[in-house]
Amino acid sequence: MRDLKTLKVEFHHPTKAEVLVHTISLPKESTVGDLINNLKTKVELSNQDAELRLVEVFYHKIYKIFPLDEKIEHLMDQYWTLRAEEIPEEEKKLGPQDRLIHVYHFTEDANGQLLNFGEPFFLVIREGETLAEIKARIQKKLQVPDEEFSKWKFAFVSLGRPTYLQDSDVVSTRFQGRDIYGAWEHYLGLEHSENTHKRSYAPSQNGNTSKKLEA
Fold first, then answer.
1. Which residue did the predictor score with more confidence, 211 or 179?
2. CB-based contacts of 80, cutoff 8 Å, min separation 6
3. Which numeric CATH code is attached to 4-87?
4. Quick check: do 4-87 and 90-191 share a fold?
5. How far lies 51's CA from each of 9, 11, 91, 170, in Å?
6. Which CATH number is associated with domain 90-191?
7. DSSP single-letter state for residue 74
8. Among 1, 43, 119, 176, which one is most buried in terms of CB atoms within 10 A?
9. Edge-to-edge, what's the strand order for the sheet holding 209-214?
10. What residues are paired with 210 via a beta bridge?
């Protein structure tokens, strides 16, 4: 039908490894809010009051959070991944000095070029919070075993150049004055082997595509 727009949307549950890819068809004049409301009827939420957002992911970076009133006819899923996820409670209660930053996984190739991989995510950091404190929250969020996590390195990455951080560094000082536009080029980088904490694909029972996280 010509007046419908069909999109593939990944849904990331906050505590479950499996990621289902839903195919949704709605009238072209529908909004992102309509798309999210439709998706809510198809997925398992952590609680009935959970709020969702839709983001655009490309090459393992988050490029956009879509406004709820944006028309879905402008969305594209051929090259970009449309990802829906619950908005964590801590992000709804940002203080005046709190910052929402991008966090990406990366490794370096033989020429020293950074290669992003895995699932990017947002993280709230607070004024005065050290890397050690932030690392503890990241490990809990990603559920990485101690032995593996101890090998990870952390860096402030700006325009592809990493500055490695120590546990005592106050991370918020690195992100002060950073404009929200181009935020994907200023991020907290998690450097580790690409074969750890990796998602794989498998068919689901309902005919959608699913991804499963391998330990």
1. 179
2. 56, 57, 58, 63
3. 3.10.20.90
4. yes
5. 16, 13, 11, 30
6. 3.10.20.90
7. G
8. 119
9. 61-65, 52-58, 81-86, 4-12, 19-27, 209-214, 198-203
10. 20, 202
62: enclosing H helix or E strand: strand 61-65
For residue 183, name the pLDDT band (cuts at 50, 70, 90): low
Burial of 190 (0-12, 13-18, 19+ CB in 10 A): buried
Residues with Cβ < 8 Å from 70, sequence gap 6 or more? 31, 32
Q: Which of 86-95, 120-129, 163-172 has the lowest mean pLDDT?
A: 86-95
Q: Which residue has the tokens 């950091």?
A: 125
- What is the reported pTM? 0.84
Residue 202 has pLDDT above 60, yes or no: no
pLDDT band for 196, please (50, 70, 90 cuts). Answer: low
Alpha carbons 171 and 131: distance in angstroms, whole number: 6
Q: Where are the domains of the chain?
A: 4-87, 90-191
Please tell me the distance from the alpha carbon of residue 48 to that of residue 113, in angstroms, as a whole number. 44
Is 201 a residue whose pLDDT tops 80? no
